[in-house]
Specification:
By secondary structure, the chain is mostly helical. The protein has helices at 2-35, 51-58, 60-93, 98-105; strands spanning 38-40, 43-45. It has two domains: 1-57, no CATH class; 59-106. The chain has a two-stranded antiparallel ribbon.
Length: 106
Amino acid sequence: MQKKNLKAFGFLFTPSMLYMLVFFFAPIIILVLYSFWQTQGYEVIKEFTISNYSRVLAEKINWVLIYRSILIGLLVSLITLLLSFPAAYGLTFNPDSADTRIIFFS
């Protein structure tokens, strides 16, 4: 019986993994490859180099932008946590109130 469940899991799991591989991982891998290649005009030169990264990281404005992006991401995460945790706590321990029904249906 255990083998049958494993086969069923494999059949159900395979399409989603193929979808993720084709539409998520493949574009990321292509993007990373292109970041290590050079361009001249509109032509891509398929030669491994880190000059793109050294040029980007050498400028101060890029470090400021990276810092701001990380800061905004952390602030959004903190605000989301502060708003969603009490809501989830209230929904869990008071599921029969009228407010809960309003939240679920809105």
